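seq:
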Amino acid sequence: RRGQRLTAMSGNQASLPLVGSPFKFAPRGQSGVEISDMLPHVSGIADDLCLIRSMHTEAINHGPGVTHMQTGSQFPGRPSIGAWLNYGLGRENDNLPSFVVMVTKGKGGQPLVSRLWGSGFLPSENQGIRFRSGANPVLHLQNPSGIGRDSRRLMLDRLRELHELQLEGNPDAEIESRIAQYEMAFRMQASIPEVTDISGEPEHVLREYGDDVKNPGTFAANCLQARRLAERGVRFIQLYHPGWDQHGGLPGGLRTQARETDQPSAALVRDLKQRGMLDDTLVIWGGEFGRTNYCQGTLGKDNFGR
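struct:
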């Protein structure tokens, strides 16, 4: 930025050599947008994409950057974008949350904290619900051993009566949120197993998403799950795929990231389009900032706000 270093991470370097991309780019589709050869599947949907090159941020570190991206402020405490949509537009399916978050399993890199999908100063029922891989996608949803559904319903009814008594003398949005969350959790005990069971998906659809789609918690599996959730009226679905912070070893690291995300990303767009859902579904793909055009360390690149 006008000769100033953007971060101190490359402050001990005597020089900042400019480095061109080791990857080839070519015009794709009728639009002619240039896309890397690392993304052959995304290249195939070039005419369904709008590539925005003017994005920028003042943040130079990941924590403030991703917080700004999700909440509009670098400072923690404000509602996330999904929480605002949930608050303003409400839900379309009473049996599923309106805001779901999934994080690719087994990826290192910068930590992701729950405030990124939090409700901030809005009622807590608007926060995102994180789905995990494994037999129990939503934590603490299953009844304890020995407690059946009828018993759980009776317990919730009595608990609701206590909450409503408290509300009479002490009106509080958080008490109302607590009642709503308990009721949603009860309904989700039936809806979550159905929405996360992909055994009924046709084999040709699974092939579109790639080999990893049958491995819960992978980016491919999460992309398919996102389509299934959107199909059932979940308004905002957010997928996180960590591992883009290549301060060193960028060529190999970026190839890995592209290999994991290219086919599932393109498959999701095609799947939505084939079902007529892309007409009213916006798919946004991006990160909190970019990388410098100069080299850092051993074939790495520093954080950059453009």
